[in-house]
Automatic annotation (TrEMBL):
Signal peptide: none annotated. PANTHER family: NADH DEHYDROGENASE [UBIQUINONE] IRON-SULFUR PROTEIN 3, MITOCHONDRIAL, NADH DEHYDROGENASE UBIQUINONE IRON-SULFUR PROTEIN 3. Belongs to the complex I 30 kDa subunit family. InterPro entries: NADH_quin_OxRdtase_su_C/D-like, NADH_UbQ_OxRdtase_30kDa_su. SUPFAM superfamilies: Nqo5-like (SSF143243). Residues 39-157 form the NADH:ubiquinone oxidoreductase 30kDa subunit domain. Pfam families: Complex1_30kDa (PF00329). GO terms for molecular function: NADH dehydrogenase (ubiquinone) activity. It comes from the Bacteria. This is NADH:ubiquinone oxidoreductase 30kDa subunit domain-containing protein.
């Protein structure tokens, strides 16, 4: 598996994508350079891009990370394409950004059932919705938790933080 193969598969599946190769060194005693691709993907291109990655070889999703970036929410899908194969693997990160006014993405659980836990985490912490996800039950927070802790504009989280700061101040 090479970064060029993965790049060709992604650009054939979603025309207009511009994967960026960012090789990085891993290891301490005998460091090796590992190819890593970063790709900005539009919401509607997410499922075709993941399907293209899966068609290239065993596909492993590490996690979907996410953050509040002002008026938008950024999700980073971290994959290893060719996972565990003798020819090696290519690390791929798909970056998808959605507006806070419409934080909806298609679920990739139909292609990778293992993505469900990390998608559910983003529902809880960022308030993102995934169409087609098998379950939206909470994984980490109580079911009645009122907000989305990773959202900077979430009023319920602000109340909780203020209450914690006041509580900690009593010990000072």
């Amino acid at each position: 598996m090479t970064a060029d193969q993965v790049t060709r598969a992604l650009t054939a599946a979603v025309p207009g994508l511009q994967p960026e190769l960012r090789p990085r060194k891993v290891g301490v005693r005998s460091p090796v350079e590992v190819p890593e691709l970063w790709v900005e993907v539009p919401r509607e291109g997410l499922v075709p891009a993941v399907a293209a990655l899966k068609a290239e070889g065993p596909l492993h999703i590490s996690v979907i990370s996410g953050r509040d970036v002002g008026e938008k929410i950024e999700l980073l899908y971290h994959f290893a394409v060719g996972y565990g194969t003798p020819g090696g693997e290519v690390t791929v990160t798909l970056r998808v950004t959605v507006s806070k006014a419409d934080p909806v993405l298609p679920s990739i659980c139909g292609l990778l059932p293992g993505a469900e836990t990390t998608e559910r985490e983003k529902i809880e912490f960022l308030g993102v919705s995934f169409t087609g996800i098998p379950s939206t039950a909470h994984v980490f927070l109580p079911d009645d938790f009122p907000g989305h802790p990773w959202r900077k504009d979430d009023p319920e989280t602000a109340k909780l933080v203020n209450r914690l700061v006041e509580w900690e101040g009593k010990d000072a």
